[in-house]
Amino acid sequence: MTKTTTITVQEIHCESCEHTIATALSRLSGVLRVTPDVKTNQVKISYDERSLNETNLRSALADIGYDPIA
C-alpha cells in the first residue's frame, strides 16, 4: 500500500542538497518518489508501507546528514 509523508529538515540549503536527498532516499527499496524542497525545508516521500515506515525514512535522512525536525 502506498503512503506519502512530508518530513521537515533544517539543513536543505541548495539544489545540491535536494539532489543528495533525492538520490539517497530513492535507493531505498520501497521508495516510489522523493521530492525535496529547499524553499520549505521539506521532503515529500511516497513509499510502499509494506517495505518501509516513516521511522526508516527519518533514519535514512539522518544517516546522510539531514536531521529531521520532530
Provide a descriptive summary of the structure in words.
- The chain has a single domain (2-63), classed as Alpha-Beta Plaits, CATH 3.30.70.100.
- The chain is an alpha+beta fold and 70 residues long.
- The chain is globular, with a radius of gyration of 11 Å.
- The protein has 2 helices and 3 strands; from the N terminus they run E-H-E-E-H.
- Strands 1-3-2 form a 3-stranded antiparallel β-sheet.
- The longest helix is centred in the first third of the chain and has 12 residues, at 15-26.
- The protein starts with a strand and ends in a 7-residue tail after the last helix.
- The mean pLDDT is 96.
Task: Sum this structure up briefly.
The chain is of the alpha+beta class and 70 residues long.
Q: Which class in CATH terms?
A: Alpha Beta
Major β-sheet profile: 3 strands, antiparallel
CA-CA gap between termini: 25 Å
Q: Judging from the principal axes of the Cα atoms, what is the shape?
A: globular
Order of helices and strands: EHEEH
How are the strands of the largest sheet arranged? Answer: 1-3-2
Structural class: alpha+beta
Strand content: 25-35%
The overall pLDDT, averaged over residues, is 96
Under CATH, the topology can be stated as: Alpha-Beta Plaits
Number of domain units: 1
What is the CATH architecture annotation?
2-Layer Sandwich
**So how many helices?**
2
Radius of gyration over all CA atoms, rounded: 11 Å
